[in-house]
Structure formats: C-alpha cells, structure tokens
Automatic annotation (TrEMBL):
InterPro entries referenced in this protein's UniProt entry, alphabetically: HATC_C_dom (IPR008906), RNaseH-like_sf (IPR012337)
Domain of life of the native organism: Eukaryota
Species lineage: Eukaryota, Metazoa, Ecdysozoa, Arthropoda, Hexapoda
Coiled coil: none
One Gene Ontology term of the molecular function aspect: protein dimerization activity
Name used for this protein in its record: Zinc finger MYM-type protein 1-like
Residue ranges annotated for the HAT C-terminal dimerisation domain, each copy included: 587-646
Species annotation: Aphis craccivora
Amino acid sequence: ENVENENNLLLPGCEPTVSTITDNNLEESAAVPDLDPAKWKINSSLINYFILNQPIQDVKKINFNKTGRMCGKYFRKLPSSIFIRTLHNGQITNREWLLYSLSANALFCFQCLLFSNKKSNLGNLKFRLKNWGKCEEKVKFHEEGQQHGESIRIWFSRTQKTVTSIDKMLHEEMKSKLDYWTNVLHRVIATITFLAERGLPFRGKNNEFGSVHNGNYMGCLEIIAKFDPFLSEHIFKYGNQGKGNVSYLSSIICDEFLSLMNNLVLRKIVAEIIEAKYFSIIVDSTPDIRHKGEQMEEALIDKFKKLDIDIKNCRGQAYDNASNMSGRYNGLQARIKKYSKNANFVPYAAHSLNLIGSNAAEITKEGTRWSSGYEVCKALSFGYKNVLQVLQVLSEDNTQQPSTRHEATFDSTSKKLQSTNIDLSIVVQLYESLEKYILDLREMFDNFLKDSQELSGKSAFSWEETRKKKRTAFYDDSNSNSTVHIGKDKMKKDIFYVIIDTLCSNLNERKAAYLVINKNFGFLFDLNRSDTLSIRQSALNIVSIYSEDLNTSFVEEVIQFKKITESFHNNDLSMNGLLKKLSNSPLKATFPNVLIILRIFACMPCTNASGERSFSVLRRVKNYLRSTLSQDKTSSLSLLSIENEMLRSIDWSSNHCMKCKLLA
C-alpha cells in the first residue's frame, strides 16, 4: 500500500515499479504466507515478506470460549487481557508482537519466531506457549527478557534497512523522472519566452511536428531539436501522440504557461510598486463615445483592488486631453482625486505640444490644397527614417542657418518630451526655451520669405487680387473701413503672425499645469542658489500639501541637506541625480523626508508615451490574423512583450518559480 501511495506522487509518464532487492530476496515473496504462525516455514522469503508486512493480531476475531483446555487440574481459557500491557503509570499499550494460532491454540512471539537463535516457548514452533496457567506472568517475563529485546532490535534494523532501500529507489526514480520533465520544460519556457517578448504568433494551421504549417512555437522546438538530441528524442517519442498523452508540448500546456508567466511578471511589477509605495497612473484608450469618466473610474479601482494596491498612495495622473479623461469636474482625473487628493494631474507634454502645433495650423482661415498635403505626407512616409536622421543632425549642427534648424528644434523638443528619463523640471525648461525660440522666429519673416522665394523660384503670391472685394456692412458695424492686407503683408500678418502668436499662447496655457507642480518642487533642484529663508518657505508649503507623507522636520532636513549638496557634481543636482545619490548612500537614514519627497516627484509622469507604446504592442500582438484571441491571452501576450526585459531577467529554475508550479 505504501509503495502504491508513493507512485501516485510521480510525474505523468512515471510508471509504478516493483522493488527487487537481492539482499532480501523480495522476488521470492510473491506468494502471501498464511497468517497462522503455527503453519509458517521459516525461510528468507517469509522473513522478507513479514519485514515489509508486519502481522497484526485482530483480537476481535478470536473466540476465547474455544481456547479452553485442561491445565493440570483446572480448565482454563486464554484471557483476552493477554494482548494488553498495563504500565506502571496505569497507561495501557497493545502487545503487537504477540500472535495467536488458531490451529495450534497457542501463543507465539512474532519477532522471536523469526530472528531468535535461542528458542523459548513463545519463539519455538515445536514447544510454543499453550499452557494458560500463569500465562500472563510467562508473557511478561518473555517481553522483559534479553532474548526478546535482541529479536526486536534485529527486526527493527532489518525493517529500516529494507524501507530505506525502497525509499531510496523510489526517490531516485522520482528524481530521474523529475529531471527529465524539468529539462523538457526548460526548453518549452525558453521557446515561449523568445516568442512572447517579440510579440510573435505561436500557433499555425495545425499542431503536428514535421508540418510546415505548425506555427512558430512548434517550429522553434523543431529547430532546437536539430541541435539537441534530448529534445529530438522527446519529440520523436511524445510529439504526435495526440490527446491523453503527456508531452508538455501541446497548445493547451503552452497557453497555461503563458498565463502562469504573465501572473509571475505581474506579481513582480506589483511587488515593485508596493516596495516603492508611491506611484502614478498612466491611462490611454481608444476613442469610444461609451467611455465615460465614471466607467473608467470603476475599471481602475476594481483593478487596484484585485492587485492589492492602495490607491491612496497615488501621487500623479497622466492621460490624453480628452474630456472624459482630463476633465476637471467629471473626468477621470477629478474622480481619482476623491481617493487620493495629492494625485496631481499632469497633461501629456508631447501630446500637448502636438496639439499646440495643430491648433496653430488650423487657426488660419486660408485653405490649402489637400493634394499638396498628400504629396508631402507620401514623400515623408517613404523616407521617414532618413528624415529623422537628418533632423537630428540639423538640430545639433550649430553651423546651420537658423532658418534651417527651426523645424528640427521643434521636432527634437517633442522627442525629448517622450523620453523615459525626463522629469517635470526639464519639461518646464523645454517649454520655456521653445517659447523663447518661437518668439525669436517672429522677427525672422523676411528671412523665411527670401528663402521660400529662392526655393520656389517665384516672387509673387498666388492670391494677388486685381480689385478689392466689397464687404457687406451690417447695422452694428462701424463706418471705418477694415484693413485688408494683400501680398507680402497678407502672408505676414494674416498667416505668419497668427501661427506664431497662437503657438506662444498655447504654450503659455499648457505650460501653466507644469509650472504649478514645478513651483512646489523646483526649490529642491536649486538649493545651492537659494537662501535659507526661501528654502524654509518652500519647504513649509510642500509640507502643508503632503501632510500625510511629510512631517515638520522636513524643513530642517532640507536646510541641512543644502550643505550636503554643495559637494555634489552638477549632474547629481537634477531630480534623477539627487534621488540616485541619496538612495544609494547612508545619507538616506539622515534625510528620510527628503528622500520621500524626491520619490513622490520622481513618480509623477510628464508623458503618456508609455501608454501609446503599449497600444503599439497591442496592435502588433493582435493583428487581423489573430483577431480571435481571447482577452486573457491577448493581455498575457501584450504584458510579456511590453515587459520583455523583466521577462528575460526571471530565473525560471529558481525555487520561487518551482513553488509557482512552473517546473515542478
């Protein structure tokens, strides 16, 4: 029975084995001997059998009325109490070594019968104990004797040796099977990781090894098998056996591993969030009239509850500029602030810059030919990579004329705003520098006009008018004639100035959201140029805002920290520099509140580019050929592709992954 239970623990494909230990001649013990000790024929086979299967006397099956016999002058029966031993403290134990023979109507000692050299009545088939007179005294004398103790020792030693041998064999076989399937799973996981991190499809038209239509998953396994004899033999043995046969190569197992790997990566992300404590929310969504702020709120809060993340630790939000997301009253940003009042909303910097340019282009009333726009976009699409390289060179080349560099500057600013290591203080600087740059362009109209005339070879404007159009006057209009610009003045005042002024106006408007946050935190990155009084006032202001995270000792910490930063290099005075410097030094124990405020500021997003990139991955993962993917599988594949670095860094053979039932 014990052997069967052990085999139930084996991996699929492990078959129960019958132990064959030559030392104990277990092959000879196939026949079950009679449990009546008077009928035993003592040999190695019998001994080996009872070592593994100790006979237990069932007292309830003994009819004590039929055990009576004449013992001298008296007729006596076998007392039922003979199978029970009462200790000196009153405790009762069973005499498991004592057996009753129905055929001989006698008692025997199980261990002495098999292992004792000196035969006593209880350990001798010939003499046995059959005189019930004073039998309790005789049994007690026997169990306290040296001969019985030696037999017990030999029996126990043989039992342990045999059991140990069997356990060892079972353990070795289980380990062999475990190692085999672990090696298979290592190759399966490596293949899944390779495909998932690149967002490649898994399945093909069929699931047959050897077919050219079996998909990337089986195809990769076949490529590995060409150079891996172990996997080649496994595929040959288990590859195309069909359902009901364990191979760990099927599509079902592949999907299960995708789900398990997704859960492990997600738990690792959540663990990092909980360890960091402070976090921000970045949400991007496809345009849908059904997406309301309330629905987005419910979806987010439900997700946080499932992941066991405390929404109260949210310190920033970044969405696109849709009203259901960024609305001040009913948008998602306003609803999240009900849970965390310090979850500051930060507009998407690069998207804001894009809207500024779009608004400036659309503000003019002059029409443009769509065919011209089409040709420009077409030319740009064919040479986009080369254009980007040229723009990068031009934006960094100080020898170029300003008229050549201005477009590259605008584009490089947009790309800088989308970088992953940017912080809000840099965003404000970029917006201010771009605003100043655009104001300088306002005085360069003549240069642009000259360059455009040289490039086009034309000096006249296409809308030169031969006569002045008469405008219909309404009753509330003034009598003064309106100024009508033509030619150069029309281009300059009705188009060029309008675009420049609109750009500056929108830059100022959208910069305001960043200025508020940067005003609260900006003093931290200008400590060396600030006096103690202004630092104290700024510190008190930020303590009042983040009263749940900071205490009043923050003020003195910052003033003391100012002295420390005097020895820092300029690169260490930025937000990222200060945070890394403080986090990796013993100073973090001295300035805990400074570290907290730096972490809060660092977690505030200034771009939603991560959300946009996620949609790019989703679009690549779920193309039209994979439109039938379930939502869970799509989410798993997307997460593994987005977090490909984290996926690759996980050691799937570690004890943690073994506990996750990935390789066990």
